[in-house]
Amino acid sequence: MSGGKGYNDMDGIPARRRERSTSSQAASGYIVGPVIKALKVLEYIGASGRDVTLTEVANALDIPKTTVFRYLQTLSATAFLHHDIPNDRYGIGHGFRSLARTDRSLQRLREIAMPIMRNLNRSFNETINLAIEDKGQIVYIEIVESTRALRMQAHVGTRDPLHTTALGKAILAHLDEPDRERILTHSLAERTYRSVMDADAIRRQLKEVHKRGYAIEIGENEDVCMCIGVSILDDLNFPIAAISLSAPIQRYSLELVDLATAALKQSSKEIAAKLQFDRMP
Predict the structure, then answer these.
(1) Which of 78-82, 96-100, 270-274 has the lowest mean pLDDT?
(2) Domain residues of the chain, as ranges?
(3) Euclidean distance between CA atoms 184 and 181, whole angstroms
(4) Per CATH, the architecture of 101-279 is what?
(5) What kind of fold does domain 33-92 have according to CATH?
(6) Domains 33-92 and 101-279 share a fold
(7) How far apart, in whole angstroms, are the C-alpha atoms of residue 137 and residue 68?
(8) Cα–Cα distance between 214 and 230 in angstroms, integer?
(9) Average pLDDT score over the chain
(10) Spatial CB neighbours of 210, under 8 Å, sequence gap ≥ 6
(11) Does the pLDDT at position 19 exceed 70?
(12) Does the reported pTM lie above 0.85?
């Protein structure tokens, strides 16, 4: 006899609990044991707060020395650990510290930007995006979506080409020429029939973007969407991120561009000023 609380007819176990259990078992099939052990080695050394020996790690984690040695050598080769060869000790390396610093910096950028992004969202009721450049692409790190219909396809973690997005063009326009050229000399992807793929045409666009202080694209990255982007510059005028307003093309107007551009520029300055204040002694 079937119960009324989602119980399985055969064994009386709640169906939802069975689903979670099955899901966990399926997920465990994708877990790589050696990776977990290597991360435990890294975690142990990080928590130790000092350089440690191979024997210490093996004894503490109850892992064979030969296995621990391979993990230590691999983590040292990737700079997540530092191997003090004369003393044969292992400590946290610059690769790990760099990753931690990057994570802290991105988290602080999000914390500062989110209230400002929410204000923009309330003012325009359009999607507000925050993104950084990574390996020649835009990576969305925060998005505050519009409550209206026809939202953008992007979500946090999405990657898009620099040259097809207003966010990317805003960043490209403020990169040093060698860095910009390394990106523009690669094959440029076509996202829609409006995407500009000619490097010389993009260079001309970027000069105008740099001059006026904002970028705009209409249907270059998504067929039905337009976007206005402004870079967030540090005290050396390096584009550490960009902020943008996205909307369906049907809501595009010169008035929206004028109002959004002014608001985005002001927001960019506020974020940059707060980030700079954080770095002051």
Answers:
(1) 96-100
(2) 33-92, 101-279
(3) 5
(4) 2-Layer Sandwich (3.30)
(5) Arc Repressor Mutant, subunit A (1.10.10)
(6) no
(7) 37
(8) 5
(9) 85
(10) 173, 174
(11) no
(12) no
